[in-house]
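Researcher: We're teaching a course module on how sequence relates to structure. For the next exercise, students receive a sequence and then see the predicted structure as tokens, so they can try to spot secondary structure elements on their own. Here is the exercise chain.
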Amino acid sequence: MKIGIPRALLYYKNEKLWTKFFDELGIEYIISPETNKEIIDNGSKCAIDETCLPIKIFLGHIDYLKDKCDYIFIPRIESAQDKETCLNFRAQYDLVKNTFRNDNLKILFINDMGHKAHKEIRAYKKLCKYLHIKKSQGKYAYKMAKQMQMYYEFFRAENQENLLKNSKKVKVLILAHSYNVSDKFVGEPIVNMLKKLDVEPIFAEYFDAKKCIKASKYVSSTLPWSYNRQLLGALELYQHDVDGVILVTTYPCGPDSMCNDMIVRKYKDIPILTLTIDAQDATAGIETRLESFIDILNFKRQGKNE
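Model: And here is the predicted structure for the students to work with:
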């Protein structure tokens, strides 16, 4: 049995958890390649025009995997850290099932109904039962996978904290979901451009999720989406430790558009650049805007030092 894992959406958040889990069970898996134009074009053909870019990318990765494995792993995540997720995360299974209904696609999924640990464990137990894996073996595999994921998140957050304290470069806080900022087509060109400009990119999503979501309540007590709350909380916590903020969003994301508008209105004392990426050409015109923005941050920093 070979399982296909699409390199899209929550893969970038849960990569260690998923891959370690299947490794411990001795199950072979294949991960789709980095996003490229062909994957995006194929995903766009599978989606309606109004679909957001991350879902088009996701469908493109599904299309790539459909003939290369026995099952495709698609988790359904309803909430995280006691807050809801975007409906697209909750509808992934149904979206793929209907989009590829003529391809005899076999889907392996978990149905994670909540943020509590026991609910996540229950979801993986059901997955093991479906795969005819012993309960004890599945429990051990989940434990090892969860431990690796937690260590990875801890050291990643610690690294961000160290960069904030020790880096002498211009520091820019990037408010972007991991499936955007870590994607080779969407976010990687932006990060590479910033590094060429001798800028230290600080990733909001890499900070401690619980800490950030708690801080977000000081800005809004009603924002419903957990992943947006995490980004908002990181900005609230670290706004005075960076020189500027870049909002990276993909068209046409509803939660991001609402949250970004609130951020621009709320945080008026810090320079903010908004970059919206679409499926046509992810980096068209972005380099010039980044150069201008970083010039402003450099001038501002020089003014403080004089």
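Model: If you want an answer key for the exercise: The mean pLDDT is 90. The radius of gyration is 20 Å.
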